[in-house]
Amino acid sequence: MIITVSREFGSGGREVGKRLADELSMNYIDREIITTIANENNMHEDVVEETLSKGVIPQIPVHFGRTFYQYQPIPSLSSQLSARQHTLIRELAQKGDCIIVGRAADVVLEDYDPFRIFVYADLSSKLERCRRLGPEEEALSDHELERKMKRVDSERARYYALYGSTPWGDKSNYDLCINTSQYEIKDIIEEIADYIRRWYIVRK
Amino acid sequence: MIITVSREFGSGGREVGKRLADELSMNYIDREIITTIANENNMHEDVVEETLSKGVIPQIPVHFGRTFYQYQPIPSLSSQLSARQHTLIRELAQKGDCIIVGRAADVVLEDYDPFRIFVYADLSSKLERCRRLGPEEEALSDHELERKMKRVDSERARYYALYGSTPWGDKSNYDLCINTSQYEIKDIIEEIADYIRRWYIVRK
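Structure tokens for the assembled complex are given below, as produced in the milestone run.
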């Protein structure tokens, strides 16, 4: 039983993942992937996260001749880290039931046939949730926070586009899309968990 | 408690609506709107359905002068029927709890704050469901059936676009988007009903 959670920034997707993991007694996987990659490469975790979220740096020609030119196929740092991230995700999934938030895990783990969730919400709910739960956003105005949301979501979309064949957030990629506007996630997590349990039993 | 169900052709949205109505002991509204309009206008039900699904015929200028022209504001038949459909939907919603399938009811009943579902599925599941449940599709090849699906869905999208501000099927319009691929709706309807019951209790 593997669950992947994709989510819009501020919609509470991480909370959905964590609470589902509690509710279903499953391993919750998120930050530890970054920690492992950071340790392996002797990098700061924030740099790993930043490098991954910016996507693969395009390869550029490194030498031009008069009549020919040559591409040097050195994988960029971000595609190296990305490949490592995929291997780690697959290793963790092999170990047993788990919930993975973000990281295009629904595509990476496609052949495990995971239950794929997308979490989203309307703008005002996302702003309100960020204000309440994200102390780092305190200094931002609503307008700045909205811009940050858009930036993070488009980074996620870009990362996803490197591996998926359909766009990030396109509902056809997911088994259930949950709009978390106007309620507290803790109040409805049991019902989401029941749906997933049932899905695993009844699907053909 | 009002529930609207939008759906892709072949995804089983109507079945979701009917079964939810049973499960939640709510009034199920679908064909009776067409029947009422047909009776009122002395038209065949199929013609009403067809006229509505083709959308509003655009108004065209009926008279040109040398230096000015004039639009004659005669509502087309489809926009007249559509307006009547909206009034009927609102009247039915006022009578009490109900589930309405299709007809842009989520937009028409926006101020009732309904629980808005979108039902979808992957192509092979939709083909399989049509083959199993739709005897009228028996004579069609897979290719023809797929074309019919696309046509019906684009008619729905066009009708929706006349009233909604965001596209039909855009997940932001809905509270829950349910992918019905790979299972029988009857096997999971209780879990969907539980989610909705809970949503009505906990939302702010």
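Chain A touches chain B at residues 118, 120, 122, 169, 171-172, 174-179, 181-184, 187-188, 190-192, 194-195, 198-199, 201-204 (CB under 8 Å). Residues 61 and 71 of chain A are 5 Å apart (CA to CA). Further analysis is deferred to the final report.
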